[in-house]
Automatic annotation (TrEMBL):
Protein name, per record: tRNA-specific adenosine deaminase
Gene designation: tadA
Record-annotated active site: 55 (proton donor)
Molecular function via GO: tRNA-specific adenosine-34 deaminase activity; zinc ion binding
Binding site for Zn(2+): 53, 83, 86
Keyword 4Fe-4S: no
Length: 155
């Protein structure tokens, strides 16, 4: 979908902000009725808080904007497939649609290792659309970690 590419582009802008801070470059955008109501990027190293993933931050801000813990009419865009913690936050906030870019073979819980978002044992499920602007999202992450490895070799 063209809209998915548009909003993923905004999530990529957020990921760039994280990269500039030395954070893992992951960005997220929450859309409600066609309007971006929240944007965030990883801040885990900056805050030294486990829950400072882009998805958790964007959900918290979205809750404030909507005035509810339920984000039932929102779509979440994120550059990397959510981890177990973030997939749980997506379920708990009742987000009906998740769109992500790159797959996460080490921690992905929206289809790669498992799909927590489509487990019939939960009382809520989230539609998942994956691989949107995958190459751009994956390359941003790959180059970030490649640079870290190169810096370590020089020490």
């Amino acid at each position: 979908m063209e809209n998915d590419r548009y909003y993923m582009g905004i999530a990529i802008e957020e990921a760039e902000k994280a990269r500039e801070l030395g954070e893992v470059p992951i960005g997220a955008v929450l859309v409600h009725e066609g309007e971006v109501i929240s944007r965030a990027h990883n801040l885990r190293e900056t805050t030294q808080k486990t829950s400072s993933h882009a998805e958790c931050l964007v959900i918290d801000r979205g809750n404030e904007v909507i005035g509810s813990w339920r984000l039932e009419e929102c779509t979440l865009y994120v550059t990397l497939e959510p981890c177990p913690m973030c997939a749980g936050a997506i379920l708990q906030s009742r987000i009906p649609v998740l769109v992500y870019g790159a797959f996460d073979p080490k921690a992905g819980c929206a289809g790669t290792l498992m799909n927590l978002l489509d487990d019939s044992r939960f009382n809520h499920r989230t539609e998942v659309r994956s691989g949107v602007m995958e190459e751009e999202c994956r390359e941003m992450l790959s180059s970030f970690f490649r640079n870290i490895r190169e810096k370590k070799k020089k020490k």
